[in-house]
Amino acid sequence: GKGLRHFSLKVCEKVESKGDTTYEEVANELIADLAAEVAAGTVEQLHDEKNIRRRVYDALNVLEAIGMINKNKKAIQWKGWPS
Description:
- By secondary structure, the protein is of the alpha+beta class.
- The chain has one domain (4-78): Winged helix-like DNA-binding domain superfamily/Winged helix DNA-binding domain (Arc Repressor Mutant, subunit A).
- Helices cover 60% and strands 13% of the residues.
- It contains three helices and three strands, in the order αβααββ.
- β2 (69-72) and β3 form a beta hairpin.
- α1 crosses α2, α1 (4-18) packs across α3 and α2 (23-40) packs across α3.
- The longest helix has 18 residues, at 23-40.
């Protein structure tokens, strides 16, 4: 499915590919990616932008809690997959 788990993986992949990023950058890119999927017909609808931003925020907090990223004010730094 395209639920929260799938979305969290997208957040994780986005942060990993960038190395150093910000919440705003990750959220904006995922919103653009989802809009492109809607336009291509691979996803039925674009969720509310506020909902997407909230999910990004939640996913980043989980990644921080399990030690995969560091958050310092607005900066996000990829640390790696847990061993």
